[in-house]
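Pinned message: reference record for Photosynthetic apparatus regulatory protein RegA
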Amino acid sequence: MSEIKLKDIGPDKSLLLVDDDEPFLKRLAKAMEKRGFDVETAGSVVAGSAIATARPPAYAVVDLRLEDGNGLDVVEILQNKREDCRVVVLTGYGAIATAVAAVKIGATDYLSKPADAQDIVNALLSAEGELPPPPENPMSADRVRWEHIQRVYELCDRNVSETARRLNMHRRTLQRILAKRSPR
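Predicted structure (tokens):
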């Protein structure tokens, strides 16, 4: 896999990171600064929206689910304020439907947590129309299964019985799967 060099960032190195997981946000900010970005962080939709409106960055990494709302609201503001802003949406609750929604409103890419800083940089700096290189640590088959179950569960408005029926699964089995943490 070819790593993207710092010179590929361009003259405007501004990067907005929006995530409500403070330890992750601090680690990612430090990693992105080491890679040459001028980082600004926000821990909520409100804070991210304020920064996006006042100082629209060249790049952004936005968490999908934030305590005070949906990260796609920040993506929309970024695209309205600065069309050339390259946005990567990160989430611990990855689903095809939300990935499609993110890309439709202007996100460059969509990555599942935990995402490696280099994977994020590769997604941010990939050429227009060019796919970034595949991740170093792709999702396991168990994780893909869990993601599919979560997507169907969300599409069924978090109704366990309806989700179990659509997945052709026993309701109690589904409840046990939903009660567990996501596999790596």
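Pinned by admin. Summary line: The chain has two domains: 10-125, 141-179.
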